[in-house]
User: Which sequence fits this backbone?
């Protein structure tokens, strides 16, 4: 897609709102046409809605695919032989798996854009990275699950990767201490899923086995959802304060992103907001799927300019979010600021279905 | 304590569970009448319509009425012995009906209630425990144990399965198959109340003849059959069949009226928005039988089908998501009826007409044919089983 070339060399938060909305709308409309022509399932969907892709359709009218449908259908806008890799994501609520088909162009753009966005968080230097996971033994270069995809995505920012867990999922103190002693004067990255951060860095770690309890030169990047944390009744502030108390870890950035839109992810800024980059946009919808009133919480619709090999440029997530209008926040640059308030609760249905 | 092995006795931890009575025993009837009175209070009546309905069901007058309808005088019958009830997670009062059926038919009962702590369950348990304290009900106290434990606790399910004379298994197909794996006594009877779907049959021409208030009433009955339980009961209609000449106008009148009522009354969680929209997209993409579809609101989606096809209800919709289809003549009904079909609610037909028709047809599915508004009225004949007879044994004396 040519529109990406126009902005790919700029900072990821460079576009001022009026330019962005025009540019973004044109690009999204051309993506809708692109997928309409190439994906039969997507075409059936738009036809069923009586939606005709046009150059100047409104952003709020762009159809959105409910994210769970990636579990029911193989949405694809490329030829099978062009598939470079397949991303798999297992849902927590059902056994079905989402499949996202990526070609080389998509993979390249994802990497490039992730880098562009990440630059605003950390800068351009590559750092040693500690991963709160075990090393995946049998790596399939063609098929990735969500966690492997995230680790491999972030690994481009590392000049060295050390996995903190052994194959039994226990903390490997020997490896960890070697890493810490090598980097006691350096900045380093820690990457992990939010639940692993809680489970290993707060609950399981035994500080008396560490050569240093001071992680103040570390930069922690975590994401992947708060569902398990909600069960433990731990929120973001509590997590951050525990990490500071226990390991003097202060530089903590949560990220938000879906496997359906890898690359154009959202990092938390210092003010605690996620910020949409040049490559993405967010719309909050109410219970009738209408655009929510300013400042109201609702369902999150995510738009991204990256998906070309599958029709994932406009999706309806199952997350609750809220757009924030805070003029004081100047972090990163331009872009909508928002908060995520967790996943939709699986409702208590009345009726006689399964026990 | 390990959560997995937690057992919570709600009624009768040390009940002997070895007593049987004849069906419709007077002590049981009085006991149920006391339960009815205890449930009939201001709080329940205002806040829990399902408790109000339960209270209405177990009052003496109704039970005597059931006896008159279902019990043949002069026969010698007693309860089977001990019943093990595995009750469904989502209709809060269902366990109580299952227990009442067990008591009416003269049995002792072990009732496993769902893990979700519904307020209705709490209220019923409170009433039961209060009444069971009365000396005159000592015998009945020995006949009831109600408990809550996780399904992972297979040891208990195994123990009760070996002990009981019949199992009443309410739930989805998976649950039922799982329970059936546990060995029972050779003579044990399993009564599975499995996952079913239901339909409605409307005579369109009769809709046009309704006054405004009669139409409102009809739609209210449909609402009560459906939305009160989020359309998730087996008996709630999922498919509407339209017959008659003036279908187009009648459909519009009916759905518009329902839409208005829903907007006034129905509350559903945000996930229903995503569930219903996702279901619509799924149908649009894969269903080749769609004539048209209309979304009245987040809680009323109607998909008009060109024809009925097999497997229509492998995945039942909920939260107010309906399929509809026109029928030209009644022979078409054989396409709809299969063993998963439970209830047909009807409007605009004579009972006699339907009785004649269905008694001639012998379809291999369909267990209930009731007017609009009665879909959820549970009774001693349920899912095609005559429980009064199945749950008691007859002594033949010649």
Assistant:
């Amino acid at each position: 897609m040519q529109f990406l070339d126009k902005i790919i060399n700029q900072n990821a938060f460079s576009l001022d709102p009026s330019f962005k909305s025009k540019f973004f709308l044109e690009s999204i409309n051309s993506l809708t046409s692109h997928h309409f022509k190439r994906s039969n399932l997507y075409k059936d969907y738009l036809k069923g809605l009586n939606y005709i892709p046009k150059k100047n359709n409104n952003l709020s009218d762009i159809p959105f695919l409910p994210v769970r449908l990636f579990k029911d259908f193989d949405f694809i806008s490329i030829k099978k032989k062009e598939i470079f890799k397949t991303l798999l994501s297992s849902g927590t609520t059902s056994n079905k798996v989402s499949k996202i088909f990526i070609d080389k162009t998509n993979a390249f753009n994802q990497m490039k854009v992730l880098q562009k966005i990440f630059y605003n968080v950390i800068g351009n230097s590559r750092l040693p990275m500690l991963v709160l996971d075990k090393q995946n033994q049998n790596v399939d270069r063609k098929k990735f699950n969500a966690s492997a995809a995230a680790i491999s995505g972030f690994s481009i920012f590392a000049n060295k990767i050390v996995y903190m867990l052994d194959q039994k999922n226990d903390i490997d103190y020997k490896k960890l201490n070697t890493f810490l002693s090598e980097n006691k004067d350096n900045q380093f990255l820690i990457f992990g899923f939010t639940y692993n951060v809680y489970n290993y860095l707060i609950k399981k770690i035994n500080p008396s086995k560490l050569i240093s309890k001071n992680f103040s030169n570390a930069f922690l990047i975590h994401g992947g959802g708060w569902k398990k944390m909600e069960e433990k009744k731990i929120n973001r502030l509590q997590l951050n304060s525990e990490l500071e108390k226990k390991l003097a870890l202060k530089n903590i950035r949560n990220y938000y992103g879906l496997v359906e839109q890898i690359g154009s992810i959202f990092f938390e800024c210092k003010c605690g907001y996620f910020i949409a980059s040049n490559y993405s946009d967010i719309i909050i919808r109410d219970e009738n799927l209408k655009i929510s009133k300013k400042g109201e919480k609702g369902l999150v619709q995510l738009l991204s300019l990256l998906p070309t090999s599958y029709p994932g440029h406009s999706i309806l997530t199952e997350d609750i979010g809220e757009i924030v209008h805070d003029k004081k926040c100047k972090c990163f640059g331009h872009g909508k600021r928002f908060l995520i308030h967790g996943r939709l609760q699986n409702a208590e249905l009345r009726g006689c279905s399964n026990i | 304590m390990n959560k997995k092995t937690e057992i919570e006795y709600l009624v009768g931890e040390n009940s002997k569970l070895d007593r049987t009575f004849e069906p419709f025993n007077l002590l049981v009837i009085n006991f149920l009448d006391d339960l009815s009175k205890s449930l009939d209070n201001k709080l329940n009546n205002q806040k829990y319509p399902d408790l109000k309905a339960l209270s209405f069901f177990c009052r003496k007058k109704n039970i005597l009425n059931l006896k008159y309808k279902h019990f043949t005088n002069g026969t010698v019958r007693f309860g089977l012995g001990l019943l093990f009830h595995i009750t469904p997670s989502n209709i809060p009062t269902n366990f109580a009906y299952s227990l009442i059926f067990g008591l009416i038919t003269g049995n002792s009962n072990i009732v496993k209630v769902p893990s979700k702590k519904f307020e209705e369950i709490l209220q019923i348990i409170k009433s039961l425990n209060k009444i069971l304290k009365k000396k005159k009900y000592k015998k009945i106290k020995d006949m009831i144990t109600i408990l809550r434990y996780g399904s992972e606790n297979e040891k208990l399910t195994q123990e009760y399965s070996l002990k009981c004379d019949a199992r009443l298994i309410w739930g989805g197909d998976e649950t039922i198959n799982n329970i059936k794996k546990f060995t029972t006594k050779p003579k044990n009877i399993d009564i599975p109340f499995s996952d079913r779907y239901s339909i409605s049959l409307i005579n369109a021409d009769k809709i046009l003849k309704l006054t405004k208030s009669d139409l409102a009433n009809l739609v209210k009955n449909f609402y009560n059959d459906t939305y009160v339980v989020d359309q998730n009961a087996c008996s709630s209609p999922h498919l509407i069949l339209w017959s008659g000449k003036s279908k187009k106008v009648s459909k519009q009148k009916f759905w518009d009226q329902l839409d208005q009522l829903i907007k006034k009354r129905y509350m559903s969680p945000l996930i229903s928005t995503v569930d219903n929209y996702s279901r619509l997209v799924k149908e649009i993409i894969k269903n080749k039988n769609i004539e048209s579809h209309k979304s009245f609101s987040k809680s009323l989606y109607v998909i008009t089908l060109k024809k009925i096809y097999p497997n229509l209800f492998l995945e039942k919709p909920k939260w107010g998501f309906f399929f509809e289809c026109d029928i030209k003549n009644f022979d078409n009904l054989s396409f709809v009826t299969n063993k998963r079909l439970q209830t047909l609610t009807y409007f605009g037909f004579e009972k006699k007409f339907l009785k004649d028709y269905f008694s001639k047809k012998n379809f291999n599915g369909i267990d209930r044919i009731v007017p609009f508004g009665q879909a959820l009225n549970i009774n001693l004949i349920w899912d095609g089983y005559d429980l009064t007879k199945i749950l008691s044994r007859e002594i033949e004396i010649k």
About this structure: The first helix of chain A runs from residue 2 to 7. Chain A is about 30% helix and 25% strand. Chain A touches chain B at residues 41, 44-45, 48-49, 65-66, 68-69, 72-73, 287-289, 299, 316, 318, 320, 344-355 (CB under 8 Å). The mean pLDDT of chain A is 90.
